Amino acid sequence: MFKGLGIGALALGLSTAVFAEQWQADEVDVSFLTTKVTATNATVTELNTFDTASATLNFDGKLDAVIDLGSVNSGIEIRDQRLKDHVFASAKHLELLISGKVDLSDIDKLEVGQSLVLQQPLHLTFGGQEVDVTADLLVVRQANNQLSVTSLKPIILDLTLFGVDQGVNKLTGLAGLNAIALQVPTFLHTTFTRIGK
Predict the structure, then answer these.
(1) Selection from 101, 100, 98, 164 nearest residue 125 by Cα
(2) For each of the chain's 197 residues, which pLDDT tens digit applies?
């Protein structure tokens, strides 16, 4: 789902001290659901993805991720272009930035095969708008130097907080729909590999 997350998130500009430990995302999947009401009042929910993202978790718990919004994949090319032109166009760069501070103390104690659940605060930045959310994440140590991180339930993003509701309304009209929901359930999955140290 999150190919090259790209929350999986993102070509991140992260710097670390020489030999410092860092977790680098090998694979980041980001998917989201859109719900629309057609002209005949039928409700349709569809799965979409972002195909490019990256993420890095620094030795001190600093998380940075970037989702390339230009890599949106709804399965319909014209819809992807309309999303970029009308919904994501308010940003200079088609990127959603994600940052956070992760408490690594319990993660470091995990043995291979063990897991824990985190309620992780995340700070999202897009087009000058900043939004705070909390993600319920399942962390599993798959190997000594590998972690998987998966959202246990969807992160509900309110598009009005990002200032893109007018773009959604434009898209609604172009598609001949009665409505497109402004609350978007979003799912994350990534695999981190520890490097350095």
Answers:
(1) 98
(2) 434 433 343 334 433 333 457 899 998 999 999 999 999 999 999 999 999 999 999 989 999 999 999 999 999 999 999 999 999 986 677 899 999 999 999 999 999 999 999 999 999 999 889 999 999 999 999 999 999 999 999 999 999 999 999 999 999 999 999 999 999 999 999 999 998 75
